[in-house]
Amino acid sequence: MAHYKMLDGNTACVEAMKMSRVKVISAYPITPQSTIAEKLSDLVAKEELDASYIRVESEHSAMSCAIGAQLTGVRTATATASVGLALMHEVLNVASGLRVPIVMPVVNRSLASPWSLWCDHQDSMAERDSGWIQLYCENVQDVYDTMLMSYRIAEHPDVLTPVMVCLDGFFLSHSMQKLVVAEQVEVDEFVGEYTVNNLKLDPADPIVINNLTGSNEITEMKYQQAVGFEKAKKVMQDVFAEFGRKFGRQKSLVEGYRTEDAEAVIISLGSMSGTIKHVVNELREKGYKVGIVKIVSFRPFPAAELKEVIGTIKKVAVIDRTTGFGGQGAPLWMETRAALNQNVLVKNYIAGLAGRDIHTGTIEKVFFDILASEEESEKPIWIDCDTENAMKIREVYKYV
Amino acid sequence: MFNLNTESKGYVSHGVSACAGCGMELIIRNVLEVLGEDTTIVIPPGCSALFCGYGIESGIKISGLQGNLENSAAYASGISRGYEAQGNFHTKVIAFAGDGGTLDIGLQSLSGMMERGENVLYICYDNEAYMNTGIQGSSASPYGARTTTTPGGKKQQKKDLLGIAMAHNIPYCASASIVNIPDLRKKVKKAREVVGPSLLHIQCPCPTGWGYDTSKSIEVCRNAVQSGAWVLYEYEDGKLTISTKIKELKPLKDYLILQKRFDGMNDEEIETLEAYVREQYHQLMDIAHS
Amino acid sequence: MLRMQVQQEKHTKKLQKCNVLGPCSISFTAAYTGSWRLERPVVDFSTCIKCGTCQRYCPADLITIDKEKVECVYIDLDYCKGCGICANECPKKCIDMVEERSVN
Fold it and tell me: Is the ipTM of this complex over 0.90?
């Protein structure tokens, strides 16, 4: 029998890791992830989790240790945020290139500079080409569920691709919510034992892994990864369906809410989705035909599924919680624009940077703007930015 | 499983692309022969990466991972913990890294590994520069050495790797040289038996980078030891022992004159280096006898 | 071949061919490094005292001493790069480095 718990997002990650019986842990503390590293250490010390805890000295080493350990044939645990993820960057590519199916929570937090402790998606967006699957969570139940499913997705022989489970910093990581936690036997049955046998370090069956490879072969090896991503979509749908049958909560790659007769929708990632659903309900009461389309899997990007959900909707607003400097738009907009037909209006809104709340007022502004729009803007709209005074917020005395 | 397309006396292929006269080639053959096949090796990019081979071909036939330049110690830590989590406490996990990947960019992960007491044998083959990328200077390059990034001679003294290891209070660390193979092998054997971190700092003569005839690799090392430029000692459970007692240190000039990398050093610079070398040597002697 | 048998015996599982994804080297090979050399070592067996110094210091581990044979020192010329360490270290100076071009 499943039971209820009050947990924050970080603890939900730890609960899922514990129940998935991770064997080697290497995590370095960074706000707002630190409690994941702490709670894992606590569980090991209390012997509630039978695992080896490596108190690593940096995130770069955290990922390196995880790769080393997982290559020997065990499930590992690591987690990070913000600049910690940025520091791991070099080794993220090693994990994906060596097909090591690590599952890692990323507690989304802004990148420096400027220094911020608070939520946006700059960190995970900076890793969108790292060859990792990226799944974004809406609430704490979603965090727990997604973590469990991610082990199945990552470790599937058709996929063998590491997974980033993204949860918004503070909004989810530190938000206490009620969730249903599965029984250990149910998790054992669903997640199963770690049995990956691709590239493996085994002195009794030795090979050398990750050596210098020539231009005559690397294209094909990268194609192998592309195939993994392609198959991941189907595997994810299967795993979502199985989880739905067993635990009663069904996910999809793309989740539409009140989109059937919508004139305009917002495309969202992460915890903002909850607030947007609330605003959708309120505006619907007032007669506005609006809806929301939440992207669950950013990598692989579910273009076909998105197109299907959008259907005949003509106006699409994309809220990016990151900047996308120098591009024609920010990352989520770029993917959406490329996926949808030319006759759909797709407008880019940048909001919620560095912990700025994407509150109901901001969301209403976006809806009203997109409903009134007849053509796309040349550049992203910084919808919650004081653009008028932006250049003047620091006035100093200087010697000249 | 390896496809064995060649026969070898030990675990390293006889036809590998190390330079003629390469010290590292002699070092790794002896290291792996002593350690045996129940070993997993982590090798960073650099000269030693040639043993991991190219494409489908490998120059070694034990389990191994080619890591990044700065995290050999971290990969090794993870591998060691992964084995132990599965009840394997017998496979020796080693790192085989150069001076750059150990003392410069690799220092952080090495320090973490030693501080945590990981069960890893870390071997630094020290050719005193970034040789594989074209002889650029590292913190292990000696004072006065010409490298492609210290063309006028290095201005700083060599960084003390064993001093750093001893400051971490690890169970065992030692320096070794290919001039004394039995001593080197004995130290590898000792390190293998350590449960916890151990470190071997082995001088690796490089004819290409140091500028001497390929036949002189052993001779250069002999002069290094006899002049005090490379001191052979062990640090075991807090106690320092000098491995090779030198009655009277040879003039450093005898060592320097063999290598083109020290050409252009004036008398004052040679004196500075010799004074430093002798000071280090006597400090070690003092600690050993206290 | 012996090594592979030892590894095989350790496994109770059957040896099966399969594809792995990603980079690995699985073919233990030797390059014909003997083609590199400009000089080759030639041993004067009559002066050789079979001390084993050359064997100890050869970086490529190509030297085998057989105390029973007249030709007591065997050097594998398939891989010898001609570095000359054996000649330089021999205490009896009984190894000559001879120009490769002068040998048929």
Answer: yes
